[in-house]
TrEMBL record, chain A:
Membrane topology, record value: Single-pass type II membrane protein
Name of protein: Signal peptidase complex subunit 3
Cell compartments where the protein resides: Endoplasmic reticulum membrane
Pfam families: SPC22
Organism of provenance: Cucurbita argyrosperma subsp. sororia
UniProt keyword annotation of Membrane present: yes
Keywords from the UniProt entry: Endoplasmic reticulum, Membrane, Signal-anchor, Transmembrane, Transmembrane helix
Family recorded in the similarity comment: Belongs to the SPCS3 family.
CC annotations in GO: signal peptidase complex
GO terms of biological process kind: protein targeting to ER; signal peptide processing
TrEMBL record, chain B:
Protein name (Swiss-Prot/TrEMBL): Signal peptidase complex catalytic subunit SEC11
SUPFAM superfamilies: LexA/Signal peptidase
CDD domains named among the record's database cross-references: S26_SPase_I
Domain of life: Eukaryota
Organism of provenance: Cucurbita maxima
UniProt key word Hydrolase: yes
Subcellular location: Endoplasmic reticulum membrane
Entry's EC annotation: 3.4.21.89
Pfam entry (one): Peptidase_S24
């Protein structure tokens, strides 16, 4: 009855149960955090704005991104993934979403900063619709927990209108 | 040597009724595992509700050996979501983040581009020859939650099959020789 195998089984089962309960509680405790992040994204300049050989418009720009996401961090937060996306509509596509910049924030100490950058991923339209096009800028973040449920949210910024002519 | 003798003795002493009971209990274990897996498939709507991360391309978010829970809903795919997708000609599904989305006005079809957080460039190099975008049918689900380290069990078992056989053998012996 109380053989070695029996005791080992009971011990392992108990340990795994406790670990699972602790993980669930840690994930559940994230619900009590009500974050109030702030951010600002500005298009400083349009550097290049051209039509590619294939006929798609491409634009490069310089952005100024500043944010304070410290309130997103709890004891169960491994990292926060943050990115700025441009969103616009064209006659062909009901939604175009293009990530312009992204970053990984590993800790609360690094969650308040301001950077000056050109777009990290190429801003290319499917077609030639970007002249004079107004797009929305949105800051999204995804919170990755140490264990449990992932969560995401966003702040919509003021948009920007691209110039009417190529340059 | 004592326990080997005992084991042989207990195998010899098995009667037909006991054998049946053990076969039934073994069957119960196997079928309940199957029920849980198929039930998860129904609830999440994904053909594989749980996947193990095999590469470090999403570090530091997901490490090798982490387990991801997938969910496949009708909701449209948006940038920033972590999706699991299959590329034609590749057996192993990939877990990466969506960075670009183009959704058609008329048909609602989507073109999606993905990238691993820890990779320098986007995933066009991983896609099939000449493929520029992922479509809806490539995507198996999006990651909604995760558990660290648990997936190491499967990684070890697939890479060192001998451990799997030893484990299965030991469990089978336990089931046969247990008298409860």
């Amino acid at each position: 009855m109380h053989s070695f195998g029996y005791r080992a089984n009971a011990l392992v089962t108990f340990a795994v149960t406790i670990l699972a309960i602790m993980c669930t509680m840690a994930s559940f405790s994230d619900n009590f955090n009500s974050p109030s992040p702030t951010a600002r994204v500005q298009v400083l300049s349009i550097n290049r704005f051209q039509k590619q050989i294939h006929g798609n418009d491409e634009v490069t720009m310089t952005l100024n991104i500043s944010m304070d996401l410290q309130s997103l961090f709890t004891w169960n937060t491994k990292q926060v993934f943050v990115f700025v996306a441009a969103e616009y509509e064209t006659p062909k596509n009901s939604l175009n979403q293009i990530s312009l910049w992204d970053g990984i924030i590993p800790s609360k100490e690094n969650a308040k900063f301001s950077i000056h950058t050109s777009n990290k991923y190429r801003f290319i339209d499917q077609g030639s619709n970007l002249r004079g096009k107004e797009f929305n800028l949105t800051l999204h973040w995804h919170v990755m927990p140490k264990t449990g449920k992932m969560s995401a949210d966003k702040i919509v910024m003021t948009g920007y209108r691209l110039p009417v002519d190529y340059r | 040597m004592g326990w080997i003798g005992d084991t042989v003795g207990s195998i010899k002493s098995i009667q037909i009724r006991q054998l049946l009971t053990q076969a039934v209990s073994l069957g119960l274990i196997v079928t309940s595992a199957l029920i849980i897996w198929k039930g998860l498939m129904c609830i999440t709507g994904s053909e594989s509700p749980v996947v193990v991360v095999l590469s470090g391309s999403m570090e530091p978010g997901f490490k090798r050996g982490d387990i991801l829970f997938l969910h496949m809903s009708k909701d449209p795919i948006r940038t920033g979501e972590i999706v699991v997708f299959n590329v034609d000609g590749r057996e192993i599904p990939i877990v990466h983040r969506v960075i670009k989305v183009h959704e058609r006005q008329d048909s609602g079809e989507v073109d999606v581009l993905t990238k691993g957080d820890n990779n320098y460039g986007d995933d066009r190099l991983l896609y099939a020859q000449g493929q520029q975008w992922l479509q809806r049918h490539h995507i198996m689900g999006r990651a909604v939650g995760f558990l660290p380290y648990v997936g190491w069990v499967t990684i070890i078992m697939t890479e060192k099959p001998i451990i799997k056989y030893i484990l299965i053998g030991a469990l089978g012996l336990l089931v046969i020789t247990s008298n409860d």
